[in-house]
TrEMBL record:
The organism of origin for this protein: Marivita geojedonensis
Coiled coil: none
Domain of life where this protein originates: Bacteria
Keywords, alphabetical: DNA-binding, Transcription, Transcription regulation
Lineage: Bacteria, Pseudomonadati, Pseudomonadota, Alphaproteobacteria, Rhodobacterales
Domain HTH rpiR-type intervals: 8-84
Name of the protein: Silent information regulator protein Sir2
Domain SIS: 134-279
Example of a GO biological process term: carbohydrate derivative metabolic process
Keyword Secreted: no
Amino acid sequence: MNDTNVSYRVLDRLTEEWDALTPEAQKAARYVLENPADVGVSTVREIAVAANVKPNTFVRMARQVGFDGYEDFRAPFREAIRKGSISFPDRARWLQDIRKSGDLGGLYADMVEGAIRNLEDTFAGIDADRLKAAADAIWSSRQVFTLGVGVMNANARNFTYLASTGMTDFHAIPGPGSTAIDDLAWADQHDVLIAITCRPYRTEVIEAVRIAREQGLTIIGISDSPASPIIRAAQHGFVVAADTPQFFPSSVAMIGLLETLLSFVIAVASDEIVDRVETFHRRRHQLGIYEGEPE
């Protein structure tokens, strides 16, 4: 294998072979999935230490996914680094200036840098074809359920709210006083579940995805690692970067991805969705919900 498209060849192959890997090989695969940039610059011994496995584990893992050995496995990652290196000197100087701007300048710079990096890392790993495939599944479905709990609940409900201005049968779950499993009781192969969870992964989301798959739903999984259980169970999986200097996961890239996915749904939809959105907002003006005249 000598394809340099690491994201869609090597990493996808690792997730496809996940269940067939030994527990130790899964540890090695998880490290690669979550730290692909390290592969291109690390020897087999160095990366084995970082992943807390033996070097032979990486060799066996590489062979299992179609390579002759670790060096052959590492080659596409090195090529990707060589072709994709980008520097941002102006941004670096700007961030340095922020750090000098007072007692909280360092925190401000760290948060800004983290948000920008999360967006770049997220969209660098996603292409338009994958977004279109997920958007087609959403538009052609009977019902769409968006599932997020904890901090992800707000992200799921925001996406549902925006989508509902132009589409019917969009449901944020769990509903008040319900559970996600109950809300999916009558869903089937005609429906889509968009499931969202980041580490530490919520068990109710994982269980809902499992049951949804049994019932035949199309799963769109959004999480922070290719090794996430909902990504591995999804027909359409998207990994978002959620790193932050603070204790809570960042939602910047998550919101960016959801907004982009929704824009793709609108792009692949029939013309009626535009009429629906216009009708929705015109009605709000008529009811006095918006201030001023419609534009």
